[in-house]
C-alpha cells in the first residue's frame, strides 16, 4: 500500500486533493468536483493549506494552488496559504462568492488568469516577485484598496474590471502597461497615480470609472480607444510629459471637463477623442514646435465657445473639417507656433465670429474657412505677417465672408507694406471691400495668385519697384482701380505678370511712371524685353515707338489697347509674343529690322487682329517680309528708307571716326548689327573694319546709327 501511494498522482489529505510530484517532492492543490459538478461541496468557512503533506513515506512541499483548484467553491469565506506557495493557477478561487479574505505568502511569484474573479474579496496584500497581474485576476471582486508590489510591470486585460467598490489603487513604481478593460466599470475609483514608468493605457482601461476626478498621466505615451470614456466626474487632466497619442473616443462623454489644456507633448488626438463632453467651455492647444495630428471631429458635439491653437496641426484624413460639429465656437485664436493650417480645418464653423492670427502662419490650405457665414472680425498684429501668408484659395481666407481686417487693433483700409517685406501671398485679400489703396515696396519680389481679387473699393496701387512675379488674377474684378504708379517706365516693364488679370491696368486704370501719365510713348533704351501683359487693355496710348535695344515683346503685351493706331518696332526686335497686338486697331506698323521678326505662335494665330494695317519695312527687305509665313498675311507691305541717316558723322563730338569701311574708336565702343546682335567691342584708340551695311554704335552715353559703303 505504501508503494502504491508513493506512485499515485493525486492524494487526499485533510479533505484537500493534491497533485503530487514524487520526483520533486512537491504538491499542488487541485479541484475536487462531485458527480453534480460542485467543487469541494463540504468545505465552508476558512480553509488553511498546510506547508507540507505526507503521503506514504514522502513528505511533499505544497508549492502551488492549481488551475481551478477551488473554482465555484461557494462555502469558502477565507483562505490561508503557506509561505511555500509560489504559484496560484488560473481561476484558482474564481466564483468563490463568499471568499472575503486570503493570506498570500511573501514568495508568491505568479497569480494566474481570473484567479480571484467574482469573489467577495475586500482587501488583499500582494507581496513577492509578481511581474504580471494576469487577465481577469480580480475582476468582479469587492476590493476597496489595493497596493501592487514594485515588481509588477504589466496589468493585463480585465484584471480589475467590474470592481464596483475599488476606491484607490497604488500601482507601484515599475509598471509599464495597463491592458484593455483593466479597470473598466470600477465606479468607485476616485484616485489613481500613474508612475513615470507607465507608457501604455489600453482600450477601455478605465471606461465608466464614474468617481475618477483627476488624472496625471506622467509619461504615458499611448492611451487606447475609449480608455476613459464615461468618466463622468473627470474634471482635471494633466497630460504629463510623454509624447502622447490619444485614441478613439478616449475621453468621450466626460461631462465634468470644462477647460481643457492640451500641452505640446500631445502629438495625436484621434477621432472623437473628446466626443460629447457636454460641459466643455474652452480648449487650449499650448504653443510648441511639434505638429499635432487630429483625427476626425475629436471634439464632436462639444459646446465650447473658445479655441486657442498654439502650434501647427495636421489631420488624419485629408480635407477634414474637424471642428464642424462645434456649433458654438465664436472665437478662434492662432498662436505664433502655428505655421501651417490644413485644408478645411475650420470649415463649416457656423458660429465663428472672430479669428486672431499669429505672426508665423505661412500657408493655409484650401477651404480652411469655407462656410463660416458669421465671420466679421479678423485680427493680426502686423501687416507684414498677414501679407506673407499664402492662402491656397479664397475660401482658405477668413476675410472671404466680408470680415474686417484689423492690424494691431486698427481697421485696415490702406495697406502700406514697409521696405524689407519680400512677398504678398496668394489670396491675401479676396473680396476685401475696405481696401482703397496699397503701396508695394521695392523689396517685394512676388505677389501671389488672386492676392487682391474682388477688392471692389481698391482705387490706387503704388509700385515702388519691380515685382518679378505677379500671380494669376492678382487684380481680378478690381473694377474701381483708377491709378497705378511705377517709379519709371523701365521698372514697369520689368514686372512679371502671369496673366492678363495680374495687371492692375486691366480695368481701365491710368499708369503713371515717374509721376508722368503714360500716353503716347517711346519704350525706353536699356530695356531688353517688354514683358507679358505689360499694357493689356490700356486705352490711353495711340502710338508707341519700341527702342532698338528691345528684342522681344511679350505675350498679350499690348492686347486690347483700344486706342493704339501706330507702332514702330526697333531694329532689334526679333520676336513678338502670342496676341501681342491682338485687339489693337492698328493702322500703321513700322518694322526697322531687315529680318522679319518671328511670332511666338502658329502663323494662323492672331498676333495682330487687323491685317489691313500698312506695314513699312526697310529698303531691301520687302521680299523677305512678303515671303515670311507670319508677315505675308498683311496685304500692304511697303519698302521705305528707315535708316534715318543723313550723312557720315565725323565731328569732334562723336566718340568715333569713319574712314571708308574702318571705324576708329575715341572711347570704348560696342558695335551691333541693325537687328540688335552684338558684333564686336573695341577699346579707345582701336579700329575695326566692317562690311557694307547699317550698324548701331554705342558708347557709355549714346547710340549712333551708321552706314558703311565700300
Mean pLDDT: 92
| Helical proportion, percent range | under 10%
The first-to-last residue Cα distance is 145 Å
How many helices? 4
Instruction: Name the poorly predicted regions.
Output: 1-7
Query: Can you tell me the overall shape?
Result: elongated
Strand residue content: 25-35%
- Radius of gyration, whole Å: 44 Å
Strand order in space, largest sheet: 12-14-16-18-20-22-24-26-28
What is the gist of this entry?
With about 700 residues, the protein is mainly beta.
Structure description:
The N and C termini lie far apart (145 Å). The longest helix is centred in the N-terminal third of the chain and has 6 residues, at 2-7. The protein is mostly beta strands and 710 residues long. The chain has 4 helices and 62 strands.
Features:
710 residues; mainly beta; nine-stranded parallel beta sheet; 4 helices
Task: Describe the SSE topology.
Blueprint lengths: L1 H6 L2 E4 L2 E6 L4 E4 L15 E4 L3 E4 L2 E8 L10 E5 L6 E2 L12 E3 L6 E2 L11 E3 L6 E2 L11 E3 L6 E2 L12 E3 L6 E2 L12 E3 L6 E2 L12 E3 L5 E2 L12 E3 L5 E3 L12 E4 L3 E4 L12 E4 L6 E3 L11 E4 L3 E3 L15 E4 L5 E2 L12 E4 L5 E2 L12 E4 L2 H5 L2 E2 L12 E4 L2 E2 L2 E3 L6 E2 L12 E4 L5 E2 L12 E4 L5 E2 L12 E4 L2 H5 L16 E4 L2 E2 L3 E3 L5 E2 L12 E4 L5 E2 L12 E4 L5 E2 L11 E4 L6 E2 L14 E5 L3 H5 L9 E5 L15 E4 L2 E4 L3 E5 L4 E5 L4 E3 L3 E6 L4 E6 L2
Parallel strand pairs: 3-6, 4-7, 6-8, 7-9, 8-10, 11-13, 12-14, 13-15, 14-16, 15-17, 16-18, 18-20, 19-21, 20-22, 22-24, 23-25, 24-26, 25-27, 26-28, 27-29, 29-31, 30-32, 31-33, 32-34, 33-35, 37-39, 38-40, 39-41, 40-42, 41-43, 43-44, 46-48, 47-49, 48-50, 49-51, 50-52, 51-53, 52-54, 54-55
Antiparallel strand pairs: 1-2, 2-3, 5-6, 35-36, 44-45, 56-57, 57-60, 58-59, 58-61, 61-62
Amino acid at each position: 500500500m505504501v508503494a502504491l501511494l508513493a506512485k499515485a498522482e493525486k492524494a487526499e489529505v485533510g479533505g484537500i486533493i493534491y497533485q503530487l510530484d514524487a520526483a520533486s517532492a512537491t504538491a499542488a492543490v487541485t479541484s475536487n468536483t462531485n458527480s453534480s459538478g460542485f467543487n469541494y461541496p463540504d468545505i465552508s468557512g476558512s480553509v488553511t493549506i498546510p506547508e507540507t503533506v505526507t503521503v506514504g513515506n514522502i513528505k511533499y512541499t505544497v508549492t502551488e494552488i492549481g488551475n481551478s483548484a477551488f473554482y465555484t467553491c461557494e462555502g469558502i469565506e477565507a483562505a490561508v496559504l503557506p509561505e511555500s506557495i509560489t504559484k496560484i493557477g488560473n481561476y484558482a478561487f474564481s466564483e468563490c462568492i463568499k471568499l472575503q479574505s486570503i493570506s498570500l505568502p511573501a514568495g508568491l511569484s505568479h497569480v494566474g488568469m481570473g484567479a480571484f474573479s467574482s469573489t467577495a474579496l475586500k482587501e488583499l496584500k500582494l507581496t513577492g516577485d509578481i511581474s504580471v497581474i494576469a487577465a481577469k485576476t480580480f475582476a468582479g471582486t469587492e476590493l476597496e484598496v489595493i497596493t501592487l508590489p514594485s515588481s509588477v510591470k504589466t496589468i493585463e486585460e480585465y484584471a480589475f474590471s467590474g470592481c464596483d467598490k475599488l476606491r484607490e489603487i497604488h500601482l507601484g513604481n515599475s509598471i509599464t502597461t495597463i491592458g484593455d478593460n483593466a479597470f473598466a466599470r470600477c465606479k468607485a475609483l476616485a484616485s489613481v497615480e500613474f508612475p513615470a514608468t507607465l507608457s501604455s493605457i489600453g482600450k477601455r482601461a478605465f471606461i465608466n470609472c464614474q468617481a475618477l476626478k483627476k488624472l496625471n498621466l506622467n509619461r504615458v505615451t499611448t492611451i487606447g480607444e475609449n480608455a476613459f470614456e464615461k468618466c463622468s466626474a473627470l474634471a482635471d487632466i494633466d497630460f504629463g510629459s510623454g509624447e502622447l497619442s490619444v485614441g478613439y473616443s478616449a475621453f468621450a462623454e466626460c461631462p465634468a471637463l470644462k477647460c481643457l489644456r492640451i500641452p505640446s507633448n500631445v502629438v495625436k488626438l484621434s477621432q472623437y477623442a473628446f466626443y460629447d463632453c457636454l460641459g466643455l467651455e474652452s480648449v487650449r492647444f499650448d504653443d510648441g514646435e511639434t505638429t499635432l495630428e487630429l483625427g476626425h471631429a475629436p471634439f464632436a458635439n462639444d459646446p465650447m465657445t473658445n479655441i486657442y491653437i498654439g502650434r501647427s496641426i495636421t489631420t488624419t484624413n485629408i480635407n477634414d473639417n474637424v471642428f464642424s460639429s462645434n456649433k458654438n465656437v465664436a472665437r478662434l485664436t492662432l498662436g505664433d507656433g502655428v505655421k501651417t493650417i490644413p485644408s478645411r480645418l475650420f470649415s463649416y464653423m457656423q458660429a465663428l465670429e472672430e479669428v486672431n492670427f499669429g505672426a508665423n502662419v505661412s500657408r493655409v490650405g484650401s477651404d480652411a474657412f469655407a462656410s463660416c457665414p458669421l465671420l466679421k472680425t479678423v485680427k493680426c498684429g502686423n501687416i507684414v505677417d498677414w501679407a506673407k501668408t499664402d492662402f491656397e484659395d479664397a475660401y482658405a481666407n477668413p476675410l472671404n465672408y466680408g470680415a474686417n481686417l484689423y492690424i494691431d487693433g486698427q481697421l485696415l483700409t490702406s495697406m502700406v507694406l514697409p521696405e524689407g517685406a519680400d512677398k504678398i501671398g496668394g489670396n491675401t485679400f479676396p473680396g476685401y471691400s475696405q481696401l482703397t489703396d496699397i503701396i508695394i515696396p521695392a523689396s517685394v519680389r512676388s505677389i501671389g495668385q488672386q492676392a487682391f481679387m474682388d477688392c471692389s473699393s481698391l482705387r490706387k496701387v503704388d509700385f515702388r519697384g519691380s515685382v518679378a512675379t505677379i500671380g494669376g488674377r492678382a487684380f481680378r474684378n478690381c473694377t474701381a482701380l483708377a491709378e497705378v504708379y511705377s517709379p519709371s517706365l523701365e521698372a514697369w516693364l520689368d514686372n512679371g505678370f502671369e496673366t492678363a488679370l495680374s495687371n492692375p491696368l486691366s480695368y481701365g486704370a491710368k499708369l503713371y511712371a515717374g509721376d508722368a501719365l503714360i500716353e503716347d510713348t517711346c519704350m525706353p533704351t536699356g530695356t531688353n524685353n517688354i514683358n507679358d501683359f505689360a499694357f493689356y487693355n490700356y486705352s490711353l496710348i495711340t502710338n508707341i515707338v519700341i527702342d532698338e535695344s528691345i528684342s522681344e515683346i511679350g505675350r498679350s503685351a499690348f492686347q486690347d489697347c483700344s486706342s493704339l493706331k501706330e507702332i514702330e518696332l526697333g531694329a532689334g526686335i526679333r520676336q513678338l509674343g502670342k496676341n501681342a497686338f491682338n485687339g489693337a486697331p492698328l493702322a500703321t506698323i513700322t518694322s526697322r529690322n531687315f529680318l522679319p521678326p518671328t511670332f511666338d505662335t502658329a502663323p494662323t494665330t492672331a498676333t495682330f487682329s487687323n491685317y489691313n494695317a500698312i506695314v513699312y519695312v526697310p529698303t531691301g527687305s520687302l521680299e523677305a517680309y512678303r515671303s515670311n509665313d507670319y508677315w505675308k498675311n498683311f496685304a500692304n507691305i511697303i519698302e521705305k528708307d528707315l535708316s534715318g541717316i543723313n550723312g557720315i558723322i565725323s565731328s569732334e563730338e562723336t566718340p568715333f571716326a569713319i574712314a571708308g569701311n574702318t571705324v576708329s574708336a575715341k572711347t570704348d565702343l560696342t558695335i551691333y548689327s541693325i537687328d540688335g546682335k552684338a558684333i564686336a567691342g573695341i577699346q579707345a584708340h582701336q579700329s575695326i573694319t566692317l562690311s557694307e551695311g547699317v550698324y548701331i554704335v554705342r558708347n557709355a552715353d549714346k547710340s549712333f546709327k551708321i552706314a558703311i559703303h565700300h
